């Protein structure tokens, strides 16, 4: 561990230093986003036919595919991110305080990516206004997808408020180190600020964190999002009371993996080994192991119930998933990650930050594959198969794959841009680290 003491200069370094690597990353991400926009323009010009997502029935395909699977994946990452940040504040988990704001920013970017997938899948973006916004009072009572959009919006507002409140303290005390060109932004964020508000804001943020923790299992990735699928009895691959906790464990594994990757990137880019310490990575790995274990256990529950003397439609749907090579690859990646986490906990010499990031990337790939397959297999094995003579099949089109690359690049651009505007590490985290060093 580094003997350097963290300073205020450390957390403003991303705003003051721009390297060639930064420009390269920005350029690569921009090209990926541009390619996605071209692909989206083609879809807007010719319709969803270019993706094959309208081929349910005689075409033998599905109407939902990578678009909806990726939407669920991004929502899971987003919800898990703010849950992690809220838990740090509520439970006093000081070890993870340096990465709490990264988790909050991951929530905002992940929710934005998820919302874009709704627009992509609607075919025409104007339908968001004509079909949902203009008739919200009717749609909210009848459309689970509108419930999703309501939950996404609510979480976005909660997270943005949470972030804005904590930024007021940081910006006021770092004002002389921040870019002068952005002074109007900082003035707007700190309007009316006095030091007397710090205690009140701390209480407000605590209550917001509590609200986030309570809402997660009841309404968001443990409730509303899985209800989009779990309440449809005609789709035996989806219909299950276990979907809520299963979605929640996937959200938490994905979010922790995302924070691992982001933490490594910022630590490497800005020499933050004394801020985002090895203990942060070790701790995140242990939490990742816990939620991977829960994820696999819930998958086991679903497979046992679905394959052991289950009703024919349930058994058929579950067998379709269980025997699919994509499913086995996803479960294998999670299991291999769990084995590594257990091994490095028993034998600390096996730990390394690089291996931790590889484990996080493996889980991110696994959860994405599982969610896309979950959506597709649910469509391919309904209880009442109208076109039984036509075996269904699905593979993502180039346009869908471009969307995944594009949204991932968009999130990368978000972090590259935000790091130039606000501190991505809370000033409180630096103060706590200095206090611990002094003690």
Describe this structure in words.
- With 439 residues, this protein is an all-alpha fold.
- The chain has helices spanning 8-11, 13-16, 20-46, 66-91, 100-121, 127-133, 136-139, 144-174, 183-189, 197-218, 220-230, 243-270, 278-307, 312-322, 325-346, 353-380, 398-418, 427-438.
Summarize the topology.
Blueprint: H1 8-11, H2 13-16, H3 20-46, H4 66-91, H5 100-121, H6 127-133, H7 136-139, H8 144-174, H9 183-189, H10 197-218, H11 220-230, H12 243-270, H13 278-307, H14 312-322, H15 325-346, H16 353-380, H17 398-418, H18 427-438
Helix pairs in contact: 3-17, 4-5, 4-10, 4-12, 4-16, 5-8, 5-17, 8-10, 8-11, 10-11, 11-12, 12-13, 12-16, 13-14, 13-15, 13-16, 15-16
Percent of residues in helices comes to over 70%
SSE string, helices as H and strands as E: HHHHHHHHHHHHHHHHHH
Superfamily (CATH H level) name: Formate dehydrogenase/DMSO reductase domain
CATH architecture: Up-down Bundle
Which structural class best describes the helix and strand composition?
A: mainly alpha
CATH fold-type name: Formate dehydrogenase/DMSO reductase fold
**Uncertain segments:** none
Keywords:
439 residues, mainly alpha, Formate dehydrogenase/DMSO reductase fold, 18 helices, 0% strand
Question: Short description, anyone?
Answer:
By secondary structure, this protein is mainly α.
